[in-house]
Each structure stands twice: as structure tokens, then as C-alpha cells.
């Protein structure tokens, strides 16, 4: 049986889609057959970040409405074996997704894949509820700021009460915290919440801390998930997170701001010519 | 330490209008006939004397299938039982109009319906429905083992409440009896929700948005910093909330 993982946050724009693309790619790189589903019907971002937008023919709504077979709608990744994307529709409205339809899709995907990642839309309304409903595990994406933490807290409550596992009184959804866009320099200046503060409020295990990094924007513009950029700090942090998810023991990195060169460094550091 | 529970308006002002939300008991009529409803209510009173005495209530009309109600008879019967109906909720327009004729305006519920209140799944006891036999406050205890998260609201009706975890900012816990919180209180805690001034709130780590006992409240701004971050017991003395460090 495949594990269903929802990538969710409550608040919008915190890095769910970036993280879904990176983690799905990372899992496939580690030999796990992985499919990532875009639940953000009407916006459709995941295929862009995964760089497959030119190969999308059918989408999840077509499958649910019986206009296409699931196998026709799945887009296989050309870079990594065993990775597939099920895109969202850009033209249909959100109500086209039904719980029964999604249940059928997940059941069918379960036969072929080890991991099914669900990239949730923002909010705690219908679309987000549907994305988390079937989850066995949840990756809660949070930025180090008060409103994002509050919304993540809400989503954790919703996972506790509105997921299928909760409704059927099964073992609760396993929760992971992914703190993204962490900028240690701004944390030190008190402009952002510290990792410890976020952990104290949300009180769930930490999967990873992804630093703020320009390579993320470059990666999404070029359609290569940032985890493929192994020179970037964000890419390395995502690799660590995937490793931890699979049980590796990896220390957390990128929690401290790089040290500014001291006086000597500045005087003799081969800097700019005067 | 005290906090002004209800700051008085400056004398130059004669009044202030404010929108407020109150928690009300709803008497959902399952019968349209006062001659059936009133004796049944009277029976429950003898079992739990004083519970509803002078309590303001709303009358719920959703379950009546539009049958006509003699509101005048109902109101005078309720008053004799020392229950004070202040309005009606739900039901068809015709019924609400009849109620308005008897001096019962239509109340709109501010937030969600009771059935939509989110509670963490493992919490076994759902809030008891108001039409169940009223119990004296704190006859039972509702135990919540996990954290109460933003957006969640837990009401221990007719009971004490014990939260073993933390009540986060944006979450709200209410009890008709006492409240004990063994983690941090960052959200709201309302004890003695059924107007019981004897109810208290005990908090391991005190950092609340709001605390209230029997309708007397203090918001964070009105709290003295001395009690923040400490283990605190809150009780009502007259009309003042008192915050006493424990341990
Ligand atoms: N670690 C990071 N460093 C810098 N920028 C980042 C990082 N993570 C995400 N971003 C940027 O934040 C923006 C939002 O990211 P993304 O689309 O992944 O968020 P989302 O949570 O999926 O948004 P939505 O709620 O709209 O679906 C993008 O512009 C992305 O490039
Ligand atoms: Mg997104």
C-alpha cells in the first residue's frame, strides 16, 4: 500500500508547491516510486515548477469526470525514474473535485506507487480539506512568522478532526514540520521567529529547515525542482529532509547566519580595490 | 494582583454601543404545545434546583415543522419557572413573526451551529445537548489529552475541564466548572461559563489572550505582567479577577 502524504499549510505562498516538487523528486531519486498530485484546481502551479507544463494533456478533473483514464493524465518525469505528476485543471472550478472521485484515483495510484504526495491549495476550505482527507502523513509547511504558525496550528487541528483517519478513529495522521524560507540573519535581528519558538508552539517533530535562497526562484523559473540543484543550500536542505523522512539520521544545517568577515577579513580579505 | 474586569465608561458618556457575543442556552422546542413543554421543564427543575434560575434563554424553533405556538402562554409559563426567554432562533418566517408579536425578537447566531464546532477527534464526550437533563456545574470532568489548536473550541458543559497539553493562541476552552491547564495557556479560557462565580482557572504556564469567570473577563492588555509565564490560579472576588501565583 502506498503512503499518502499531504503537503499543507493553511496560509498561502509559504512554499507548499516548491516543497511538494522537491520532496517528490527526492523520494524518486532515492528509488521510491512517487506520484505528486496538484490539488490546486484553478491555479495549477505544480506542473510549471516540475517543468512538465508543455506535456500536460489531461488533468485530475478529466479523470474524475470520466473524460480520460488515469494513465492518460499522469505525466511521467523525464529526469527521474519512477516520478509522475497528476496535474490540476486550470479551467474547471474547484467543485469539480469530489471526495469519491479522489478516493478512486488514490486507490488506483496505490497499486503502482510507494508514495502519493498531495500538494494542497492554501486555506482550510473545501480544496484543502479534500487534499488532506486521505492522508497517512502530513508535511506542514510553515514560515517563521506569527500568522503562518497560527495557520499551521489550525491545519494541525483540522488533521486531528477532519481527516479520514480521524473520522474512522484510526491511528492519527503522522505530522512533520517543514520550516521554510528560514533566514537566520533576520531571525537573529528578531524580525522572524526562531526555530525553537515555532517548535514550542506547534509541538510536532521537525522534518527540516529550508533556508531562504535565491536558487528557489531560479529553479522554479527553469522548471527544475530545487532539490536537483545540489550546490544550493535549499537543495541540500531538501535532500536532508527527504533523507530524514526515509529514516536517515542527518543533523540540521543552515540554522546560523554565515559569519561576517571580521576586521582582519575585511582589511586583508582580497576585497575590492579602492 | 487584580485586573479591572469591566472598566467603567468615563462619566461624560451616557452609554456605549458594542457588538458582543454571548453564550446562551437554547430551549429547542420539540413540541409546539406549552402545556406539554412547561410541566416537562418543571420536572427537570425539581431535579436540579436553581440551575436555570433567571437564566436568559433562546427558544429554538427548528424542530417544530412550522406548527403554530402560543408564544404568550409559553413566555408567561417560562417566567413562572424563573426562566427568561429573550428571543427565538431558527424556524420558518411565519413562526418567527408570531414570536415577535409576543415580544420575542429573532436572534441570529453569531458563529457556527453547535454541531459544527470543531473538537479534536479523540475527545470522547461531545458537548451535551442543552435539552438533556441539566446537571449541577462540575458534576463531571472532560479530559483533553492533546493540545488545543488555533480554531478549535472545546466546551465542557456542566463539567470541569482538564487540558493536559497547551491551549494555543486562537483556541478557546470553556467550562461550566473549573479549568485546569497543564501546558501553556496562550488562547482563551472561560470558566464558570454558566455564570458560576465560584469557578476557577488553574494554569501551569500563564500567557493568555483572555481569561473569564462567570462573564467577568480580562484581556491580555489588562493583565499585569507579573503573572505572565508563571503558574497561576485565577478566581473571581466580587467583580474582580484575582491572579495568584502557585507553587
Ligand atoms: N526557500 C525559499 N527561498 C526563497 N523563496 C522561496 C522559498 N520557498 C518558496 N519560495 C518562494 O515563495 C513563493 C511561494 O512558493 P510556493 O508557490 O511553493 O508556495 P505555496 O505554498 O505552494 O503557495 P500557494 O499557497 O499559492 O499554493 C514562490 O515565489 C517561491 O519561489
Ligand atoms: Mg501551491
Automatic annotation (TrEMBL), chain A:
Checking InterPro entries in the record gives: CobQ/CobB/MinD/ParA_Nub-bd_dom, MinD, MinD_FleN, P-loop_NTPase, ParA/MinD_ATPase
Q: Which residues form the CobQ/CobB/MinD/ParA nucleotide binding domain?
A: 5-226
Q: Which UniProt keywords apply?
A: ATP-binding, Cell cycle, Cell division, Nucleotide-binding, Septation
- Say yes or no: keyword Lyase present: no
Against Pfam families, the record matches this protein to: CbiA
Q: Does the record carry Flavoprotein as a key word?
A: no
Subunit structure as annotated in this protein's UniProt entry: Interacts with MinC and FtsZ.
Q: Which family does it belong to?
A: Belongs to the ParA family. MinD subfamily.
Q: Which NCBIfam families match?
A: minD_bact
The job of this chain, per UniProt, is described as: ATPase required for the correct placement of the division site. Cell division inhibitors MinC and MinD act in concert to form an inhibitor capable of blocking formation of the polar Z ring septums. Rapidly oscillates between the poles of the cell to destabilize FtsZ filaments that have formed before they mature into polar Z rings.
Protein name, as recorded:
Septum site-determining protein MinD
| Organism for this UniProt entry | Sabulicella glaciei
TrEMBL record, chain B:
Limits of the Septum formation inhibitor MinC C-terminal domain? 144-243
Which key words are in the record? Cell cycle, Cell division, Septation
Q: Which Gene3D superfamilies match?
A: 2.160.20.70, 3.30.70.260
Domain (Septum formation inhibitor MinC N-terminal): residue spans on this chain = 15-85
| NCBIfam families linked | minC
Instruction: Summarize the protein's role.
Output: Cell division inhibitor that blocks the formation of polar Z ring septums. Rapidly oscillates between the poles of the cell to destabilize FtsZ filaments that have formed before they mature into polar Z rings. Prevents FtsZ polymerization.
Which PANTHER family does the entry mention? Answer: SEPTUM SITE-DETERMINING PROTEIN MINC
Q: Which family does it belong to?
A: Belongs to the MinC family.
Which HAMAP family does the record cross-reference, listed alphabetically? MinC
Subunit annotation: Interacts with MinD and FtsZ.
What is the protein name given in its UniProt record?
Probable septum site-determining protein MinC
Taxonomic lineage is: Bacteria, Pseudomonadati, Pseudomonadota, Alphaproteobacteria, Acetobacterales
Amino acid at each position: 500500500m502506498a503512503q499518502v502524504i499531504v503537503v499543507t499549510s493553511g496560509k498561502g505562498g509559504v512554499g507548499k508547491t516548491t516543497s511538494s516538487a522537491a520532496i517528490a523528486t527526492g523520494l524518486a531519486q532515492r528509488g521510491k516510486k512517487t506520484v505528486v498530485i496538484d490539488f490546486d484546481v484553478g491555479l495549477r502551479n505544480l506542473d510549471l515548477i516540475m517543468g512538465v507544463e508543455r506535456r500536460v494533456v489531461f488533468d485530475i478533473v478529466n479523470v474524475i469526470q470520466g473524460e480520460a483514464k488515469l494513465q492518460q493524465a499522469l505525466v511521467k518525469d523525464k529526469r527521474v525514474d519512477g516520478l509522475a505528476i497528476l496535474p490540476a485543471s486550470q479551467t474547471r472550478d474547484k467543485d469539480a473535485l469530489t471526495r469519491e472521485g479522489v478516493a478512486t484515483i488514490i486507490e488506483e495510484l496505490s497499486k503502482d506507487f510507494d508514495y502519493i504526495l498531495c500538494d494542497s491549495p492554501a486555506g482550510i476550505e473545501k480544496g484543502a480539506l479534500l487534499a488532506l482527507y486521505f492522508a497517512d502523513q502530513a508535511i506542514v509547511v510553515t514560515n517563521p512568522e506569527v500568522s503562518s504558525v497560527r495557520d499551521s496550528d489550525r491545519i494541525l487541528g483540522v488533521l486531528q478532526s477532519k481527516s479520514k483517519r480521524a473520522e474512522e478513529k484510526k491511528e492519527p495522521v503522522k505530522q512533520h514540520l517543514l520550516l521554510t524560507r528560514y533566514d537566520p540573519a533576520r531571525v537573529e535581528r528578531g524580525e522572524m521567529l526562531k526555530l525553537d519558538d515555532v517548535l514550542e508552539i506547534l509541538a510536532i517533530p521537525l522534518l527540516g529547515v529550508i533556508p531562504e535562497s535565491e536558487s528557489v526562484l531560479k529553479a522554479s523559473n527553469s522548471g527544475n525542482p530545487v532539490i536537483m540543484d545540489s550546490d544550493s543550500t535549499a537543495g541540500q536542505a531538501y535532500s536532508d529532509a527527504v533523507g530524514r523522512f526515509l529514516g536517515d539520521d542527518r543533523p540540521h544545517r543552515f540554522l546560523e547566519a554565515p559569519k561576517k568577515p571580521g576586521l582582519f577579513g575585511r582589511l586583508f580579505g582580497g576585497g575590492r580595490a579602492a | 494582583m487584580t485586573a479591572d474586569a469591566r472598566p467603567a465608561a468615563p462619566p461624560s458618556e451616557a452609554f456605549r454601543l458594542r457588538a458582543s457575543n454571548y453564550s446562551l442556552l437554547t430551549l429547542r422546542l420539540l413540541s409546539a404545545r406549552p402545556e406539554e413543554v412547561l410541566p416537562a421543564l418543571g420536572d427537570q427543575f425539581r431535579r436540579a434546583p436553581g440551575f436555570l434560575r433567571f437564566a436568559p434563554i433562546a427558544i429554538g424553533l427548528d424542530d417544530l415543522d412550522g406548527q403554530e405556538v402560543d408564544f404568550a402562554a409559553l413566555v408567561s409559563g417560562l417566567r413562572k419557572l424563573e426562566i427568561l426567554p429573550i428571543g427565538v432562533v431558527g424556524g420558518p418566517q411565519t413562526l418567527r413573526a408570531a414570536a415577535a408579536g409576543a415580544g420575542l425578537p429573532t436572534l441570529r447566531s453569531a458563529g457556527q451551529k453547535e454541531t459544527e464546532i470543531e473538537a479534536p477527534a479523540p475527545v470522547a464526550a461531545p458537548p451535551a445537548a442543552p435539552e438533556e437533563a441539566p446537571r449541577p456545574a462540575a458534576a463531571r470532568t472532560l479530559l483533553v489529552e492533546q493540545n488545543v489548536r488555533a480554531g478549535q473550541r472545546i466546551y465542557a458543559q456542566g463539567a470541569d475541564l482538564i487540558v493536559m497539553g497547551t491551549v494555543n493562541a486562537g483556541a478557546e476552552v470553556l467550562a461550566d466548572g473549573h479549568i485546569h491547564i497543564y501546558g501553556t495557556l496562550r488562547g482563551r479560557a472561560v470558566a464558570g461559563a454558566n455564570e458560576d462565580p465560584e469557578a476557577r482557572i488553574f494554569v501551569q504556564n500563564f500567557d493568555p489572550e483572555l481569561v473569564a469567570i462567570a462573564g467577568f473577563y480580562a484581556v491580555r492588555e489588562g493583565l499585569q505582567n507579573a503573572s505572565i509565564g508563571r503558574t497561576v490560579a485565577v478566581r473571581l472576588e466580587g467583580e474582580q479577577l484575582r491572579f495568584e501565583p502557585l507553587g
